[in-house]
Write a structure and sequence with these properties.
This protein is of the alpha+beta class and 215 residues long. Helices cover 53% and strands 8% of the residues. GO terms for molecular function: transferase activity.
Length: 215
């Protein structure tokens, strides 16, 4: 079986996506906490040694460093024959929601949450802009989940793992009460949390936490 090392920090929803996928597939990984808040990933040394793109997470598979969460999720789905597509139609739908998430939902939520909770001084107008965009994206997802249990139908895939990652963090970080504002998303998050082996990010990803200024 492959051996895994995951370079991460606990607040990283993208790190959580890989940690959760491995866990749900019955695999363990060696956690490698990374001082993202202290600027380690911005150093030339780290980028040369770990990831030239300067991003977390990095997944080492038998010593080979691999990056970019979406293709890694797809690779793991294919490897373990879990949480992937079974038909060409499902493959298209899975990719459609996965790419939408990367470009829209995760893309905006990751930045909004970081600025809102983990930045001591932020620009209210920038936060207002991001919030407005997020409310649009969350509305799209909520309407979809009103008639589909998961992203592509009746069973979860890596598209769900990708979309739920940043949304499952505590509300004092992202500032949304999904039970009130987006009940279909709230119910879907519950379905994801009921999967055998599921754990939240702060259980799967130990280590020093960043200061939450939004509390």
């Amino acid at each position: 079986m492959p051996s895994y090392r995951l370079h991460y920090f606990p607040e990283s929803g993208n790190s959580y996506k890989l940690a959760l996928m491995l866990t749900l597939c019955g695999e363990r990984f060696e956690p490698v906490w990374t001082d993202f808040g202290g600027g380690l990933t911005r150093t030339a040394e780290w980028r040369k040694a770990v990831n030239e793109m300067g991003e977390i997470p990095v997944l080492e598979v038998d010593g080979v460093k691999m990056t970019q969460t979406a293709p890694l999720l797809l690779k793991l789905a294919d490897q373990y024959k879990r949480f992937g597509a079974e038909t060409e139609e499902e493959k298209f739908e899975l990719l459609r929601w996965l790419f939408w998430d990367n470009h829209k939902l995760t893309g905006y939520m990751a930045t909004y949450r970081f600025m809102r909770a983990f930045t001591e001084k932020n620009d209210p107008q920038v936060l207002k802009h991001f919030r407005r965009r997020l409310e649009d994206f969350l509305g799209i997802l909520d309407r979809h989940l009103q008639h589909d249990a998961f992203a592509i139908g009746t069973r979860p895939t890596v598209a769900d793992i990708s979309m739920m990652a940043y949304l499952h963090y505590p509300s004092d970080e992202h500032g949304f009460d999904f039970a009130q504002s987006h009940p279909a998303i709230h119910a879907w998050l519950g379905r994801m949390a009921a999967l055998p082996g599921w754990k939240p990010a702060y259980e799967l990803l130990p280590g020093k936490r960043m200061t939450n200024y939004a509390k």
